[in-house]
From TrEMBL:
Native source species: Metabacillus lacus
Name of the featured protein: GrpB family protein
Ranges in a coiled coil: none
A Pfam match: GrpB
Recorded superkingdom: Bacteria
InterPro entries, alphabetized: GrpB/CoaE, NT_sf
């Protein structure tokens, strides 16, 4: 699998706002905070044209209520990742014309890759103000304010996008040491862990 990056688009924040309104309308009041994260949230940064969204629950027990609210509306619940990251619920929203191709729930037994070109949105639901929440906002905000690190991250992404990957998680893992370095430079506190 190749990762296809696009030049930064001024439309990505507007796409986020529309998706945020849709998610809010489907989940109120369980998700009091919804943020645009990932490369599409950083102006000037090349990215896969998939909007990454992080939503925060006030209570950890609310995590298990979210899938039933989103699945009837086209979100594929990636339940297979719950063991790896039990504090997160992950969803992929395919583009409308592809939604009928994918199950509501993907488990170990029925999992298969959703091609990036079919994806509109990735939604990560975690507890608000958790370490995962804070780290993602810290990384986004740091790249927004530090053009030299944003350029270095983009260069890394371009180099990695030229390789073949078995799946997107391998590509993401290849960026992890750079991301960790930025978080250290940004002054991440130990409680963010």
């Amino acid at each position: 699998m190749k990762v296809k990056l696009q030049e930064s688009s001024k439309e990505w924040p507007a796409h986020f706002q529309l998706l945020k309104q849709e998610i809010e309308s489907l989940t109120e009041p369980l998700l009091p905070a919804i943020e645009h994260i990932g490369s599409t949230s950083v102006p000037g940064l090349k990215a896969k044209p998939i909007i990454d969204i992080m939503a925060g629950t006030a209570e950890e027990q609310h995590l298990n209520l979210i899938p039933k609210l989103l699945m009837p509306h086209g979100f594929s619940y990636m339940e297979l990742y719950n063991n790896e990251l039990p504090f997160r619920r992950f969803f992929i929203l395919p583009r409308k014309k592809f939604r009928s191709l994918y199950p509501e729930i993907m488990t170990e037994s029925n999992a298969f890759a959703i091609p990036h070109k079919h994806r509109l949105c990735h939604l990560h639901v975690v507890r608000y103000n958790s370490g995962w929440w804070k780290n993602h906002l810290l990384f986004r905000n740091y790249l927004r304010m530090h053009p030299e690190d944003r350029a270095a991250y983009e260069q890394l992404k371009v180099e990695l996008s030229a390789r073949d990957w078995r799946h997107g998680n391998e590509y993401a893992a290849a960026k992890s040491s750079f991301i960790e370095g930025v978080l250290v430079k940004a002054g991440r506190g130990k409680e963010y862990g």
